[in-house]
Structure to design on (79 residues):
């Protein structure tokens, strides 16, 4: 099982996943989220973890990925 986190470049809350050895992808603009999900899917990642803030920029998360072989986990955004 390959797991990846997607983070927005301005977020700093990924020290624990980094220390645990998880793969973390950084995007520069929130609108890049769909492209990054497709890229990770093509690299055989089975689980992608996305903060709620970035998930709101995806047009495909609900429609496209709900019946797909990839698991997308949306985590709450800390304020």
């Amino acid at each position: 099982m390959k797991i990846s986190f997607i983070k927005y470049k301005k977020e700093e809350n990924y020290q624990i996943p980094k220390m645990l050895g998880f793969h973390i992808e950084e995007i520069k603009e929130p609108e890049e989220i769909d492209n990054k999900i497709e890229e990770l899917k093509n690299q055989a990642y089975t689980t992608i973890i996305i903060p709620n803030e970035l998930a709101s920029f995806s047009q495909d998360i609900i429609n496209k990925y709900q019946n797909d072989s990839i698991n997308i986990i949306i985590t709450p955004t800390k304020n």
Notes: Helices lie at 15-19, 33-42, 52-55, 61-65. The CA atoms of residues 51 and 75 lie 5 Å apart.
